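Final report, closing paragraph on structural work. Over the funding period we assembled a curated collection of sequence-structure pairs, and we close with a single example.
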Amino acid sequence: MIKNPMKTPALSIIILFLISVTASPALLAQIADTPWPMFRHDLQHTGRSPYTGVQKPVVKWTFQTQGAVTSSPAIGADGTIYFGSKDTKLYALTSDGELKWAFGAEGEVESSPAVRADGTILFGSWDGYLYALDPEGNLLWKYKSGGGIISSPAVSADGTIYVGCWDKQLHAITPDGKVKWTQKTADHIVSSPAISPDGTVYFGSGDYYLFAMEPEGKAVWSFGTRYLLDASPLIAPNGNICFGSEDARFYILRPGGDVEWIFDTRYDIDSSAAIDTKGNIYFGSGDSNLYALTPDKKLKWTFETGASIYSSPAVGAGGTIYFGSRDKKIYALNSDGSLKWVLETGDAIESSPAIDADGTIYIGSNDGKLYAIGNEPTAAKSESP
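Its predicted structure, as stored:
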């Protein structure tokens, strides 16, 4: 467990206790309390929203950038949508799709942003920097690593920022942008770290291993797969760690690193998994299928698209599963695996969807656009004379 090193008087302890039982988990974790504040929604990477997503889709608006949008969007406290583009910029848009500002990095921005409780926006770039911006788009600080940052940052309860890097290290960074510690691996890190309620940090590496780290920087254990591990781990409510690998296998490990179950697909897995309120797990594969696994370790169903799936699914409160495919399409599936709706974009989709409080789905496409998909307006009923 993470322990607070501060020694406080009795009154302060009481105040801290009252805060702990009244504040939301997102706030206590230093992540903004918004509909979708970071990659995969939360620190456990559940990919699950408390809001019902789009049921009858209509494209509300699109915003064009000058590069592919593989970054997945995050939503700020005032409804601002943040996302990166391969045109080297991080964009901030209003909920109506108007540009608020754009911040130029020196390399492509594939990292998905995270929004802290204080409004700070954190994201990485291929230029090797992790950037911290204020809500107006001004640079607060930037942290230099030894390689490109495609991994998306996570912020722990004590404010430490964790992010993987192409320099073969996981970086633990202080809230003001200083190095705390690093963990060396044998290859690049694209996987975005997930943080369990006890503070353990989990991440995958291109050296085929999943690592479990204590917040103080000690490696607890590692688990080897048979190929690259670029997908990000999901931490289930029972503490199990769930993730896919490019060895075409989906793994479920117990918190101590022992195998609970291994499920084979037909091709590599780079999509990160989502979990619904019933414990069903969803993820995409390079074999073009979205898979649904039950809590009792059975295949529930598969849904085939027209190309490989790198996009990581999001699950709405009503159980609808949303994701993109490299066949250029955005899909919404019912919880039984049947198709609810589909929309086509101008190019392959590798970005993952975010769900807003009104149900709007935001997702990027390699056509350079961010798409906002809302519910089709209900026709007004005419009154009888």
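The chain has two helices and 32 strands. The two ends are 68 Å apart (CA to CA). We thank the funder for supporting this effort.
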